Each structure stands twice: as C-alpha cells, then as structure tokens.
User: What shape does this take?
Amino acid sequence: MKLRLSLSFIVLVSSLSSWAEYRAYQYMVKTQDLYAVATKSNAQYIVSTLNPQMFQRYHGGSLVTVDLLRTWICPGYTGSRKSVCDHPYDKDGAP
Assistant: This one.
C-alpha cells in the first residue's frame, strides 16, 4: 500500500514539473490552380504546426505543392488558439 502511494506521489510530482513543446514548420506553398498561376499569386510563406504530409492533405492534397524551408521547437502548447512562436533566428537577427 505504501509503495503504491509513494509511486502515485512520484508520478504526480513529475507530471507537475513537465514541460510541453511542439514543432513549428515554415513552408513555401504553391498552388497548381491555373488561375493563380496566371495571376502570379501562387506562392505563399506559411508557418504551421502541421507536418508536411498532413499540411498538404489538409490544405488541398495534390492541388498544392509544399516545400519545407525550416523547422524549430517551440515551448508551451498551441491550445486556446495561441499563435505559433517565432523562429529563434528571427529574434536575434542572425541568418
């Protein structure tokens, strides 16, 4: 009984000190839509928490081309519609 209680206490304390993090991705997204290609508005830079395969499936499948530019780790979580953190190099002014 004491073993279970102490084990439960250890699990509880370790979960309180845990830290969440997520991966952010920056993409260049190009559409295969002929109208967008004709108007030269077919490329966008997007930051998302979706990995490249899921991003492409969620945002158009074969109608879009997704090129991964860079990725980084963000502290915290993206719940409650929080925005994705900035790239660390963007804060320092480094390349």
User: Anything to note?
Assistant: The radius of gyration is 20 Å. The mean pLDDT is 78. Residues 19-76 form one domain.
